[in-house]
Amino acid sequence: MYGGVLAYVLAHTPRAIEGTGALGGLGALVLVFALVRANAALVAWPVALLGVAYAIALVVHGSSVDDGAPFVAGGLFLCAELASWSIDERLGIPAERGVVLARAFALCGLATASLAVAALAVALAAAPAGAGLAWTIVGAASAVAVVGVAVALARKAQEAARSRLH
């Protein structure tokens, strides 16, 4: 996931490849270190560094809306979640099959929902703005919906994991 998003960022702006490449490369090194050392606390840093590299690419590119933004967001989300999951699997406590399946379904649901809402947000941002307040309300509602879906799916996965353990 990380490599795919990094490749997209690097291909997006060849004029800023030194800065975006350095940030993305540093993030890749931190991700490898976090995975080798099984340190879940470090997983957020590579994602943040790649997010900053993507933001720089957007600024340098100068376009107002990037159609690939939902895929970048989904890739960053999946990268962080899969890295965390990989580290969790190294614990000495084996998870039951039902818990693993519940986590996988929750992860797929969150990724799909975030991709759909991000695509909606990009589509709304690309649309001509006729009424500013209406678009602001729609944007705020979509942001709240993303958080609501994420919380609901996380609670469902947590409840499923608890029920499998007891």
Topology diagram in text:
Layout: H1 2-12, H2 17-37, H3 44-61, H4 69-88, H5 97-126, H6 132-165
Shape: flat
- Count of individual beta strands: 0
Tell me the distance between the termini. 34 Å
Give the radius of gyration: 18 Å
Low-confidence stretches: none
Mean pLDDT: 80
Oligomer: single chain
Structural class: mainly alpha
Series of H and E elements: HHHHHH
Residue fraction in strands: under 5%
The largest pleated sheet is described as: none
User: How much helicity do the residues have?
Assistant: over 70%
Number of helices: 6
Short structural summary:
This protein is mostly helical.
Task: Give an overview of the whole structure.
This protein has six helices and no strands. The protein is mainly alpha-helical and 166 residues long. The chain has two domains: 1-94; 96-166. Helix 1 (2-12) runs parallel beside helix 3 (44-61).
